[in-house]
Fold each of these.
Amino acid sequence: MSIIMTLRIALKALNRNKMRTVLTMLGMIIGVGAVITMVALGRGAQATIEEQVKSAGTNVININAGNFTQGGVRQGQGMSSSLTAEDAAALRTVPGVQYVSAGVNSRGQLIAGNQNWSSQVQGVDIDFQLIRSWPTAYGAFFTPQDVASASKVAVLGKVVSETLFGPDVDPTGQIIRIRNQPFRVIGVMAPKGQGAFGQDQDDVVFAPYTTVQKKLQGQQHINNIIVASETPDTATVSAAITEALRLRHKLVAGDPDDFTVRTQEEIASLRTETTRTMTVLLAAIAGVSLVVGGIGIMNIMLVSVTERTREIGLRMAIGARGRDVLLQFLVEAIVISLFGGLIGIGLGFALSMGIERFAQWPTSIPADWIGVAFGVAAATGVFFGFYPARKAARLDPIEALRFE
C-alpha cells in the first residue's frame, strides 16, 4: 500500500473522532507552545544583555578596589582604600589605554525648590563621557578646571532632571542641594535607559570625583577606575593594567591582588551564560508536557487499536500485511504529533508576541528551535505510536474477526 493511500486512510480514521483527536493533540500543542515561549524569553533576555553591554562599550575595562574587612566582617569589593587618584593617572601611560576616569560612589538626598529625590551620586573624571559615548541633552559636562578645583557642579541624569524640574525643562544654571550642600547644575545627560545589570542609568547625578571625594565622602581614596582601551583586544590591556597596579601597590609574587579588573566581555559572558542556563532549564521543564502529550497519544492509539480490532482483522484477511497495519497506525500517531506541533509553534509565536507587547519583556524566537520543536513532535509521534502500531500489526486475523 502506498504512503499516500496510508495517509488518506489515517486522516479518515482521525476525522471519525474529531473531538478525541483534538484533545489528544492538546498535550502536544501545549508542550511545543511552552517550549517555544520559554526559549523566546531566554533568547530575548540574552539579546538585551548583549545590546546593553555594547551600549556601555565593548572596550571598557572596570577596575574596582578590593575587599575591606573590619572585625571579621567582609564589606565586599570596592570598599577598601587600595585605589587612589594617582593610580588612575598612572594608567594613562599603560600601552593600549585610551581614556581613564577615576570614580567615587556616593548616594544622597537631592533637593531643588520644593522637590526632593534620593539618587546615586557618581564622582567621575572628564573622560567618563568619552568612555561611555554619552552626550548631554542640555548644557555641557564639567571641565578639567572643575575637577582640579573640586567645584560644586553637577550633571543630572534624565530621571533626576525630570523629577526635580519637570519634563522637557532645561535646568542648566539651577541650584540643587546634595546632602545640604549647594551644587550648580551645568548639564543634563541624554537618556541612556536600563544598564546591563538592570539598573536605571538615568537615575544618577554626576559630579567631579574630587568634589565627591572631598566634600561629600571625606575620603582620600577612590572606589573604582574606568578605562577605555584603544582596541577591542581588552584582554591584553587588562593584563597590562593588572601588572601596572601590582607594581604601584608593591605586591610581590604570591600576594593576591587588592583590586579587581573586569572587562565588559567577561561581564557579558557571565550574564549570558546564566541566562542560557535558565533558558535550557525552563525549556526542559516545558518539555515535560511533551512527554505527557506523547503518553496521551499512546493511550489513545491503544484505545483505537482495541476499537478497530475487527477492522484490522478484516484488512488482514483480504491481504493486508502486518507492516501495512503497523505503518497505518504509526502514520496516524505521527499526524497527530505533527499537527499538534505546528499548532503549538503558532501558539508559541502568539504567546511570545503577547508577552512582548503587554508585559514589555523582550522575546526572540530562533529559527533553529522551531526546527527542533517540529522534529521533537515528529519523534514523539514515532516513539509513542510505535507500540500501539506494533500491537495492531501482531493481531491474529481470525481472533481479530471474532472480537466483539
Amino acid sequence: MLDIKPLRHFIALAEAKNFHRAAERLHLSQPPLSRRIAALEREVGTPLFERGSRQVTLTPAGEVFQREAVAILEAVARAGALARATAAGSSGLLRIGFTMCAAYSVVPRWVRAMRAAWPQVRVELKEIVSDELPARLAGGEIDLTVMFDQGLRPGQARRRVLSEPMCVALPRNHPRARARQLRIDELKDDPFALTARDAGSRLHAEVMDFCRRHGFEPKVGVEVRLQQTMLSLVDDAHCVALVPDSMRRLAMPGVVFKRLRDAPSVDLYLAWNEANRNPCLPGFFSACAIPDDV
C-alpha cells in the first residue's frame, strides 16, 4: 500500500515541473525529494517523469498516476473530515424504532428537527410492533425506541415524550357516527378490533380494563398486530376500536374518529441503552428538545 506522503511529493513535482521549486514548496532540499520520487517510481514499477535539464514532465503513466493520486488524497481528506464529524456527532447514523402511532405524533417532528440541526446525520426509521421494541433495543438493532409504558431491560433508560387520550374509531355508517362524543358503554354490543396481546400488550390491557371499569366485557371481533390493519378492519369488518388520538391523522375514507368520555390516556416513552456510545445521541436529545421527565 502506498504511503500518502510520497503522493504529496509526487503531486508537488508534477505541478511545479521542477525539482528545485517542488522542494521549496515542500520545505525539503532537492536531493531527498529526488530520492523519494525515484523510490516511488520503483514501487509503482514504471517511470512517472521524464527528466530534462531544466524541468520534468509527466510520462503517460505519470499522467494517469496523477489523476489517481489526486483522487486518493481528496478521498483521504474527506474520510478524515467525516471521521471527525462522526466523532463530534454531526455526521453518522441514528436508528429509531417505533410503534405505529408514534409515526403520527412525535417521530415526524423529530426527523424535521434532526434535518435542520444535523443535516449530515442519517436517521433510519424502523416500524416495529410495540412488544418487540425492548428486545430490539437490547440487541443493539436500534439506538432509540418510542414505545408504550412497558418494562425496560437492565441497562435501559427512558423519558416520557407524549401523553395523549384514546379516541374511538367507528365505521362511517355506524349509528353513533354523528355523535360528537361517546361513552364506552354505548359500544358494548359492538365487536372490537384489538391489538393482539403479543404485539401491543399495553394497549390491549388498557382497552380491556377500560371496558370492564364501565361494566362490560368487550366482544373481541378481531386481534391484529398493526394499528393500520386494525383501522382497516373498522371499515371492512364493521368493528370499533380504541386507538391513541394521534391516529386521527391516518385519514381513512370509511372510518370516523370520536372523542371518548373519560378516555384513558396512553403514554409514549423514548428509551435507549445507557451503554450506547453513538455520538449522534446527544445531538438528538438537544435538537429534539427531549424532556427530562423519566
